[in-house]
Amino acid sequence: MRILLVGAGGVGTAAARIAARRPFFEACVVADHVAERAEAAAASTGDPRFTAARVDASDEAAVRALLAEHRCDVLFNATDPRFVMPLFRAALAGGAHYLDMAMSLSRPHPGDPYARTGVKLGDEQFAMAEEWERAGRLALVGMGVEPGLSDVFARYAADHLFDRVEEIGVRDGADLTVEGHDFAPSFSIWTTIEECLNPPVVWERERGWYTTPPFSEPEVFDFPEGIGEVECVNVEHEEVLLVPRWVDAERVTFKYGLGAEFIEVLRTLHKLGLDRTEPVEVGGVKVSPRDVVAACLPDPARLGDRMRGKTCAGTWVKGVRDGAPREVYLYHVVDNAWSMAEYGSQAVVWQTALNPVVALELLAGGVWRGTGVLGPEALPADPFLDLLADYGSPWGMREQ
């Protein structure tokens, strides 16, 4: 396997460091619009299989040329969701397979945004599924941790733990703190704003996909391994758009443990219009308000030395087994102290980066295969979870 990894931020760099310990690929080109960042990410592996290149992720012709120049057979997208579609199209045109961790962007319903869906996450990608099938190529979408591992958990639970699934609810929480900062998100603020301020989507068998107001249906969820109780709220996320396509369930939700302070900051940004992506003119220069917010906050990838605590991603499943009600929580916890000591990457970005690398290894070995546009739950869960343990980061399960 020859990989073009586009995006040398925190997640891309962590993915390179994780992959460097595995023998499944021949070469990996790390590309970014900032050449120095790509060079630093490649050099951080200490592995000659990694080289660096500069590319604008929005330039489809340039991406296709890079795929051809380095004879890459898979494009691994580690950029933010703005660049999903140009990279998705470039991979198809370049004859490569494709993998991402976040799907094409949504657009709220113009007249009834808090009840009806507009353009849903991933709609633009699924609209091209037949083209991928005709090309005999696979686009594996939403293959991070959430979405990604959470979808694998849903598949595993449906296949092995239940006779009938009533509800699948992804639940994400952490007890992470960042010393020296009053407000410092542990993941891309651009993506976090997109997820948290868009209308959350819920799926129910009788209603299909529908939306609610942001931060709706709060609940307190008890997270494992000492994290404890965290209030979680509905957030727009890919699992709700992916899981019902392949897993039989009555209801699917995604809830994120944001905390009251974080929610208030996001609401304030929205009130001030600072969540907007459309450029505004300031002193003769056009800038996106959301890009300004991101530039003013510390880079999440550089916060690892000041972070303390653990992050947990997991999937809660409720249903029936052998005629009796059952609830389980399948989860994956990463301690920031461990990920920093072992890989030099903070816990949230490392946890996100781990799962696409595991998926690439399964694809390289022919264990996972397919054509078209598929989510992780369309593929067998067991090989993924077995290999996850081989990477030194096993998963857990708790009866609720």
Would you give an account of this structure?
The chain has 400 residues and is α/β, with parallel strands linked by helices. It has 14 helices and 20 strands. Helix 1 (10-19) runs parallel beside helix 2. The longest helix has 18 residues, at 347-364.
The total count of strands amounts to: 20
Task: Please state the CA-atom Rg, rounded to the nearest Å.
Answer: 20 Å
Structural class: alpha/beta
Helix content: 25-40%
Instruction: Round the mean pLDDT to the nearest integer and report it.
Output: 95
What is the count of DSSP helices, taking H or I runs of 4+ residues? 14
Which stretches of 5+ consecutive residues score pLDDT under 50? none
User: Beta fraction of the residues?
Assistant: 25-35%
The description of the largest β-sheet is: 9 strands, mixed
Give the distance, in angstroms, between the N- and C-terminal Cα atoms. 41 Å
The shape, in one word, is globular
